[in-house]
Amino acid sequence: MRKADPAPGRASARQRGGQQRPVQFLALKITVFVVLCLLPFLGLLRLAMAGHPSVLAVYALMSLLTVGLYWHDKRQAQGQGQRTPEKLLHGAEVLGGWPGALIAQQLFRHKTRKVSYQLVFWLIVALHQAFWFDQVIFAGQHLGLTF
Description:
Elements: H1 26-49, H2 54-79, H3 86-108, H4 115-138
C-alpha cells in the first residue's frame, strides 16, 4: 500500500531530499513544556526531600522509554512494519512518560494529528497535573494519595 501524496504545495520529506522542516512555533512549544513540567517537578522535588527520590527516577526512565517507543513506532509506520499498540504508548505515558511523549510527538512528528489519540494523551497529562497540584498545594490530602 502506497502512502498518500502530501497536500498540494507541500513536498514530502523524501521529495525535499530527506530533510524535515523545523518545528513550528518552537518557542511556544518549549514554554508550554516547561509550564507543564513545573508542577510535577516541584512535586517530585518535595518527594525527594521527603525521602522518596526514586519517583524522580521513574519519571525520567519512563520518559526515556516512551521516547524510544514513539521512535520505534514512527519507524515502523514509515516502513509499514509491526506498529506499537496505542495502549502501550498510553500506558507508558500514564506511568510517568508523558513528558517524553510530548517531546517525541514534536521531535518525530508522530501521533500529533490523530484526534482520538491526542484526546487520551491530554487527559493523561491533565490527570498528572491534578495529582501533582494536590501533592504540591494540599500535600496530597484532597485526593487521599500521600507519600
